[in-house]
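User: Round two. Same drill as before: sequence, then structure, for each protein.

Assistant: Same drill it is. First protein:
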Amino acid sequence: QVQLRESGGGLVQAGGSLRLACAASSRTLSNYAMGWFRASPGKDREFVAAISANGDSTYYGDAVKGRFTISRDKSIKTAYLQMNSLKPEDTAVYYCNADGSLRAVVAGTLGRGSWGRGTQVTVSS
C-alpha cells in the first residue's frame, strides 16, 4: 500500500480559497488513481473529486463542480485539490485516497486502497 498524508487545511472565510495536497511517503503514485472525500458530523462521507493515473480524466461531486479542481504532479508524488469560492457547507475533514482502479477511487470503498488521515477545512460565514 501507498502511505498518504494530506496537508493544506485550515480556516478560511466564505468565498476564499485553499489548496490541499496529498503526498505519498513511499512508492510512486504514477500507477494509481487518486481521489478526495470529505466527512463532517451528521453527514455521510461524500465524494469530492478523482483523477486517473495518467491525469487525463477527472471527476467531481455535484456539490463542488465548477469550484474545485483536482490535479497531480507525478514527479513529486503529490495530488492537489484547489478549492475556490468556498462555502460554510464545505467545512469537513478532507481525506485523499489512492487505488490502482479509478472506479475504486470514486467508490471510496473503505478497506480498499490507501487512505490518508485527513486534514480539517473550516469555512466561516
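Second protein:
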Amino acid sequence: QVQLVESGGRLVQDGDSLRISCAASGRLFSSYGMSWFRQAPGKEREFVAGVDFSGRNTGYADSVKGRFTISRDNARNTVYLQMNSLKPEDTAVYLCAATRLSKGSRNLADFGAWGPGTQVTVSS
C-alpha cells in the first residue's frame, strides 16, 4: 500500500495562488489513480480534483473548475494541486488520496490510502 504525506499548506490572502504537494512512498505509485479532497470544520469531506494513473486525464469539482489544476510526476512519486484565485470558502484541510482504480475516482469509498492533510487558510 502507498503512504502519502501532504505539504505546502499555509495562510494566504483572498485572490492568491498556492501549490500544495503530496509525496508518495511505496511501490506501484504510477498505477494508482490520485485525488485531492478537502474538509472544512463542521462539513463533510468533499472531492476537489482527480487524475488518472498516466496524468493525462483529470476531473474537478464544479466549485474549483477553472481555478485549480491537478498534476502528477510519476518519476518523483508526487501529486500537485495548483490553486489560483483562492477564496475564503476554499479554507479547509486538503487531503491526498490514492485508489487502486487506475482511471481515478470521485468516490471516497474507493480510496484506501490517505495522507494526514495540510491546512489551507484563505483570509478575506
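The mean pLDDT is 97.

User: Perfect.
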